[in-house]
Queue: 2 jobs
Job 1
Amino acid sequence: MVSVNLEAKKTVDVMIEKQDELNIAVSQLSNGATIIDCGVNVDGSFKAGELYTKVCLGGLADVGISIPGDLSEKFALPSVKIKTDSPAISTLGSQKAGWSVSVGDFFALGSGPARAICKKPAETYEEIGYEDTEADLAILTLEADVLPGEDVAQYIADECNVDVKDVYLLVAPTSSLVGSIQISGRVVENGTYKMLEAIKFDVTKVKHAAGIAPIAPIDPDGLKAMGKTNDAVLFGGRTYYYVESDENDDIADVAAKLPSSAADGYGKPFFDVFKEAEFDFYKIDKGMFAPAEVGINDLTTGKIYKEGYVNVDLLKKSFGVDLSLIHISEPTRR
């Protein structure tokens, strides 16, 4: 079976080789672990965001950035595009922020391939039938405002049963360009997560998936950045899933329940919801974490289901966009 760590290492090698071009910084800790700073003490870049997101997905997805949108609405934003032919493994087996790394004063949400070695959380890997048993190295991406030290690297090495010299830690704050890109890059994962956790649908039946979400504007306030980046997917994310259904599957019902707008708490920017939940993710309806618009192609019946919608008004509210101040010149006629 494919190793998400070995696949992601190919992208990590590119990042190390092109660190100057990517505006990132690579260093080694005294115990030999490799740290790749993508936004703590560096600016990062769009390309670094693409590569970071691909690492999160275990190297099993194509990641790109485009500028879609209706220009007549004056609200076109750079967006992240994701395509994968291994949806369950790449998103839930790797990209999911399923490892809360807490060592001393350091805390970060951990995503990426290393999770598949030590199976964090174990139930996710049982449900998708995957474990990375081939890798002799561990790659983890950390959503944090500070760089980890030797104790963090050693902890991860011990949990994954690898030599600490074979640990690679990529770090990007939420309030950075790379951080904003990689969170929007979870647009497909948010859908597979909701299928598994809230709808209880067998995600191994999802054979292919694609999605696109706007990149939230960068906010130096970490909590506000968390709100905006989540809203980019909740109100602006669009996904498409190709599902091989069984005769007992109600794909129309799955599609109806899947968009973020189907959740009870829908209707407010995520920062407001998070604040009302006393900044505790576990108090928030799991159904909130989903794309805005969903399409499902049932490969067994050939039917297509489309539910949800992009909520431009809530995106504007979340991002603090005052379009009355934006002036678009009329084209010059000759």
Job 2
Amino acid sequence: LEREVDVVNLPVAEKIKPGKATVTLEMASGLKYRLDTLSSVVRNNRANVAFDNNGGILKVKEQDSAGNSLQETGCNTINVPYGGTYSVELCDGTKVYLNSGTKLEFPSRFDGDVRSVSLKGEAYFDVTKSKEWPFIVRTCRSSVKVLGTSFNVCSYEEDALEQVTLEQGGVEVKHHDETYLLHPGEQFELDTTNEEVEVKPVNVKLYTSWIDGMFRFHNMPLDLLTVKLERWYNVHFVFSNEVCKNYRFTGAIRKDVDFNEFIRLIERTTNVKFVINQKNIIIEEK
């Protein structure tokens, strides 16, 4: 069983808090909006849709379609920089939760035989069911096809691994000419360095708890864990040697905690220490 370590009364130094991200929406027309300040409804009359930004969720709603003969061309883009998350509800009701450092491209409305979006980064999808209208998530390496389900896609261009983790329903992951069918509780993992693919059972919560405001790790090497912390706290880690990269951490912690609390927790349970120099964090053996 996973052993979770909770934070209690840890010593703190100069605080590094999760960043206040400036999430932006760039519409197909080229207009750009800051979603942290946009509270009004933005209408796209060409596609008869409205973008309603309220409470950290951007809802794309189709308006009265009477007389709608003009179709939207191009895609809208949401950019979530390091230090933030955001949610969008697409025009078909599909909910998408976007993690730090993520870019989602989507149309104002879905036309044609499929519902298609493009992703760079990490997102959790809760797809509205439709037997006749498949939903496709395209990454730079693969495509994920579903009819209605809940799953997580982690596909950062700079990462060595791409992962699709299925919570409910079923998905087909296509990479090159091969198609992989996932069942609930399974994960598609692509090693981008050698193009090897593995489909395996996993603890889904380890890959989806971020949407509930939690970090959960099980026996994760520090070189992979620090990548996730860099995106959330907008810091940069430097390993003093290769050995430090291979130390592993198991634990759970809220994403809203101070950075120092997090690294002190890691120090308590592994044989490393962190030396903070503003945004540069050096990891050394004790």
